[in-house]
Design brief:
The complex is a heterodimer of chains A (468) and B (152).
Chain A lengths: L2 E5 L11 H11 L4 E4 L1 H10 L4 H10 L7 H17 L4 E5 L6 H14 L4 E5 L5 E2 L2 E5 H8 L4 E3 L6 H6 L40 E3 L2 E2 L10 H4 L4 E2 L2 H15 L3 E4 L8 H17 L6 E6 L9 H9 L2 E8 L3 H7 L5 H13 L4 E7 L6 H13 L8 E8 L7 H4 L1 H4 L1 E3 L6 E3 L6 H17 L4 E3 L6 H7 L1
Parallel strand pairs in A: 1-2, 1-3, 3-4, 4-7, 8-11, 11-12, 12-13, 13-14, 14-15, 15-18
Antiparallel strand pairs in A: 5-6, 9-10, 16-17
Helix pairs in contact in A: 4-5, 9-10, 10-11, 14-17
Chain B lengths: L1 E11 L6 E6 L2 E6 L5 E10 L2 E8 L6 E3 L5 E4 L1 E9 L2 E2 L2 H7 L1 E4 L5 E2 L3 E2 L3 E7 L4 H7 L16
The chains are: A alpha/beta (468), B mainly beta (152).
Chain lengths: 468, 152
């Protein structure tokens, strides 16, 4: 086998990872023999059932090696190494979706290089940039300098991985910080999931990349720093891929892995029409989907639009971030609280489930804003479960390479060891205050019968408490 | 299985240097005589698992400089300031604990990383592989040792 594409464990999600399937399709298209292995789900399934789950997660997030998990960690690393070496690839392509995979990747690559020094290892993905433990350190360069990996790819890997396999190491993005985004997402081959075992996933569905980048420029977000320009696929192209995957895997649920599904309204409306048409023709095996979704004003999302979302079985993930209008608009989300209420009302009317994403304790939020937020949820208790299926809280974090990081001085922010540990001179609200507030919100929403999920990527409460 | 063992040392000369002989069990892997003052890096390929045996010699009672008040100003010795296995550094707080030392003419076992004596030193790599060894030490890939060089 020329190359084995693997997702690096550390994304605590019960859904399939997309990168190995995309890269396999590109390598196959170019005539290379490859395989796609979703190692992330295999490790996730072991961890989620593990009696020492919490301690294992602490290893992923902060590399804490508790004495009770020494054997468990060794077993996980051996399991991964065995899976990889048993397939006997010449090259291993390890894809890190987020920085949460970094510590495990260090240990896995270290182990693999000792077991099989001849195995070439290349890493890529949005999780390889800055080291989670120290943002000034280039993670991939660090691993390369230690000899734990041979090479790395920054940015879009569809073309660069093929050039890499052709030994063209001068291609942009290979062992370099500068890379060229794919110019046209519509011409890429469809991801190849034929090596995936879909019975492993609690949430069974096919991931689809319909766009890259974002139309907004929120200051906390690192996606827009990665993909500086918003790119989208046409509705026809996406729908063709859906039909292809349905035929291949007999799965009609789709997860849009993107920053937003409704970035290009014209194409999104068309895609909704195509999905609705499919569902009319296939009433017993309807398409359903979920994806991130921008709140817009009523004129842009009229009632008939909601009818189509319902008919296409959409599940919307709304990046609300703050229910305080002033804070939200200033951070880059240009919609009003009336717009949110309109979306809640429409979603309720058409039973469109919503997931609300909120940042707890944004640097510009005050104590009064905390109280306002609690009251906001109390006033919307009647939306619990329908349409608010879930609320995802993330502790406010200063992520490396974001506008927010660059505005630290302006906000009077002093940062600590991890992105969620920081203080601002503007408010005197400490990390501990934010954790307390986070817990208060959790308790409140539980009493309001709203389902809550803790945000990942080190923005959960456990990592912050541990680091304090 | 092979692994690369690196010892980062600080040598103090006084009438020459300590002589250092290292063995992978009984196979010689390094000999250092007349080492220079200051930082010295020792790299050896070793089998794994194994026991590394080290012999220190060439220390004499006169290999020490004392000032008028009786304070030692120079003492022939080697101090191990870092251990890396395939570039993975072992935490500084653990270094002395890993060396099992026995001074010539004594039956007492000590754990130390300062070797200003003639004697035998052992380091035992008893886990199935370096990854398991690092885990057993609860040795994190430590940020403070990432940029380790001989001048640190």
């Amino acid at each position: 086998m020329d190359i084995l594409f693997c997702s690096a464990p550390g994304t605590f999600s019960s859904r399939p990872t997309l990168a190995p399937a995309i890269l396999k399709a590109c390598a196959t298209n170019a005539g290379f023999n490859s395989m796609a292995l979703d190692l992330n789900i295999e490790i996730y399934n072991q961890i989620r059932r593990h009696p020492r789950q919490k301690l294992l997660k602490e290893f992923f997030e902060q590399q804490k090696i508790h004495k009770d998990i020494v054997e468990d960690l060794g077993n996980l690393l051996d399991y991964c190494a065995d899976r990889i070496t048993s397939l006997n690839p010449r090259t291993l392509g390890l894809s890190l979706l987020t920085q949460d995979s970094q510590f495990f990747t260090v240990w896995l690559c270290y182990h693999l290089k000792i077991l099989n020094p001849a195995l070439k290892i290349i890493i890529g993905g949005s999780g390889i940039k800055n080291f989670i433990a120290e943002s000034k350190i280039n993670f991939a360069e660090l691993l390369k300098s230690k000899g734990y990996i041979d090479d790395y790819i920054n940015g879009d890997g569809e073309y660069s991985i093929v050039e890499y396999l052709k030994d063209n190491l001068n291609y942009p993005g290979i062992n370099s910080g500068t890379w060229e985004p794919v110019k046209d997402l519509n011409v890429l081959p469809y991801p190849d999931f034929t090596d995936y075992d879909f019975s492993q996933y609690q949430e069974k569905g096919i991931p689809i990349c319909d766009s890259r980048g974002c139309v907004r420029t929120c200051e906390f977000c690192d996606i827009i720093e990665h993909w500086k320009k918003y790119q989208y696929r046409t509705a026809d192209n996406i729908f063709e891929e859906m039909q292809h995957q349905i035929k291949q895997h007999n799965i009609t649920r789709f997860f849009f892995y993107n920053s937003l599904t409704n970035g290009n309204m014209k194409e999104f409306q068309k895609l909704l029409d195509l999905m609705c048409g499919y569902n009319d023709k296939n009433p017993t095996a309807q398409i359903s989907w979920d994806g991130y979704f921008i709140v817009r004003n009523k004129k842009q999302h009229p009632e008939e639009f909601w009818q189509k979302i319902k008919k296409s079985n959409g599940y919307l993930q709304l990046g609300i971030e703050s229910v305080v209008e002033r804070v939200r608009i200033a951070l880059g989300k240009n919609f009003t609280n009336d717009d949110i209420d309109y979306h809640l009302a429409m979603a309720k009317k058409y039973s469109v489930p919503l997931l609300l994403l909120l940042i707890v304790g944004y640097p510009t939020e005050s104590q009064q804003d905390f109280e306002f937020t609690k009251q906001w949820f109390q006033d919307r208790q009647h939306y619990a479960r329908n349409p608010i299926d879930q609320v995802v809280f993330s502790l406010s974090a200063i992520l490396p390479n974001t506008k927010l990081e660059r505005k630290q001085e302006e906000y009077g922010i002093v940062r600590g060891e991890i992105p969620t540990i920081w203080m601002t001179q503007a408010t005197d609200i400490s990390t501990q205050d934010r954790i307390n507030y986070f817990n208060e919100l959790n308790d409140l929403l539980t009493t309001l019968n709203m389902a809550i999920t803790n945000g990942g990527s080190g923005m959960d409460i456990a990592s912050a408490e541990l680091a304090l | 299985m092979k692994a690369n063992l690196t010892l980062l040392c600080s040598v103090t000369r006084c009438n020459g240097s300590i002589k250092l002989e290292m063995f992978d069990q009984t196979t010689p892997i390094y000999t250092g005589e007349n080492l220079p003052d200051g930082p010295v890096r020792i790299d050896c390929e070793i089998n794994w698992p194994t026991i590394i045996n080290i012999i220190t010699s060439n220390k004499h009672p006169t290999d020490m400089e004392v000032d008028v008040n009786g304070n030692i100003v120079k003492d022939k010795s080697i101090e191990v300031t870092g251990i890396l296995i395939n570039n993975f550094p072992i935490h500084q707080d653990l270094i002395d604990k890993l060396f099992i030392c026995q001074r010539e003419g004594s039956s007492t076992i000590t754990n130390e990383n300062w070797w200003g004596f003639n004697g035998k030193i052992k380091i035992i790599f008893d886990q199935p592989n370096p990854m398991r060894y690092m885990l057993s030490l609860k040795n994190e890939f430590n940020m403070n040792r990432l940029h380790w060089d001989l001048n640190e």
